[in-house]
């Protein structure tokens, strides 16, 4: 279901709860909302009103990827980025890393399965932005 983007700072500033396999429908809603937007390249669950640690982003092929409980485990090549956000009016300067390794869960066969991924460039930046959202950091 396509959801409205939340801009309420009280909701966005609260850290998200860990996701479980029962939260798979939130991942589906994230993908549908992401694909319906002309502006979005990534979304976190709290941006659609769900306080679960789930993110979705468009990979380099333009296909949506959903990550449950993502965490950056390694980061290289720091830089300063000025990021816009669908939930905020003003762009924000933040430190990002051009290369990250992320551990996360993916939904497969009705359960969450551990996974890891190396990301660079735009995908790395998008996932770091979404993880900030999950941690209640307003970007």
TrEMBL record:
Q: Which family is this protein grouped under?
A: Belongs to the polypeptide deformylase family.
Q: Where are the transmembrane segments?
A: none
Which Pfam families has this protein been placed in?
Pep_deformylase (PF01327)
Q: One GO molecular-function annotation for this sequence? A: peptide deformylase activity
Q: What is this protein called?
A: Formylmethionine deformylase
Q: Which domain of life is it from?
A: Bacteria
Q: Which InterPro entries match?
A: Peptide_deformylase (IPR023635), Peptide_deformylase_sf (IPR036821)
